[in-house]
Amino acid sequence: MSTERLMSSLLLTLVILAGSTAARAGDYTGLWTGMVTVDAVSEPSSSQPERPTPAAGEFTFPVLLHVDDKDRITLLKEAVMLWRAGAAEGEGKYLLVADRQVLARLLSQTDGRPSGRRLSTAAYDFEGATRVVRGDLAPGKVAWVNLDVPAKLPTNPFRHVFHPDHDNRDDAGQPLPEGKDEVFAVERRMEWKFDQAADGPELKGAYRETLTGLHRTPVQVSGRFGLRRVASLSTLER
Predict the structure, then answer these.
(1) What is the mean pLDDT of residues 209-215?
(2) Residue 219 pairs with which residues in a beta bridge?
């Protein structure tokens, strides 16, 4: 099954679980997910190293965003929707969880039985469960987030299995002298510029990202994105 079809299936499941996600006009509260398609990248050796140029191919990746009842945006790596039963038969409510420690606590209250649905992405990583996104999630607006990828983070690209020499150790396996690092911190600035008008239930727009630390010149990429609200829950469980 393709990534796009798998995502569509998961989104449909969440919509069914959450019930109607309809909301007042101009209300964008809830969990949003969709795909970013990158189709242009800058060339550091060109005369305009900061300008992305069309690439020979493209790649897509999923993204998860949450908007609370005060219009504050949060970037998520994963989201799990759980059903918490009430005191009476048939009573209860859905909970939205992004923190694994919180998830473990909630599952312990149900004897660890699987009782939710999960969405996740491996397209980005950071320490902790969430990151604050600046700006606004709405037509005609811009939202952005700065992500730091520390050298010690296991998913730092320099620590990839195909980069065995990037381990900050010499050929004898001893730590390198200070200032001779082979693993470097990376910074990512992700930006979503929303189209002026919504495309039905979907929000679309232009995507741009700046990656600093992979090359001596920051790498710029750009493309398009589409987001769809899959749940109108305004609160992330803490």
Answers:
(1) 94
(2) 211
Q: Is residue 200 part of a domain?
A: yes
Q: What's the mean pLDDT in 27-46?
A: 95
- The model carries a pTM of 0.82
Establish if 95 belongs to a structural domain.
no
| Listed residue (27, 34, 23, 14) closest to 76, CA to CA | 34
Instruction: Using the predicted structure, report yes or no on whether residue 15 has a pLDDT greater than 60.
Output: no
Question: In b/e form, how buried is each residue of 32-61, taking b as 16+ CB within 10 angstroms?
Answer: bbbbbebbebbeeeeeeeeebeeeeeeebe
Q: Where are the alpha helices (DSSP H) in the chain?
A: 3-18, 100-108
Give the DSSP letter of residue 18: H
Q: What token pair was written down for 220?
A: 């710029």
Q: Residue 40 pLDDT > 90, yes or no?
A: yes
Instruction: Name residue 82's beta-bridge partners.
Output: 95, 116
Phi and psi angles of residue 102, each rounded to the nearest 5 degrees, phi first: -65, -40
CA distance 204 to 193: 8
204 within domain boundaries: yes
Is residue 44 assigned to a domain? yes
Question: How far is it, in rounded angstroms, from Cα 156 to Cα 213?
Answer: 11
- Number of folded domains that form the chain: 1
Residue-number span of the structural domain to which 18 is assigned: 3-75+128-150+185-231
pLDDT at residue 115 in the model: 64
- Average pLDDT in the 85-102 region? 82
Q: Is 177 in a helix, a strand, or coil?
A: coil
Residue 186 exposure: Cα atoms within 13 Å on the Cβ side: 23
> Looking at the chain, how many residues does it have?
238
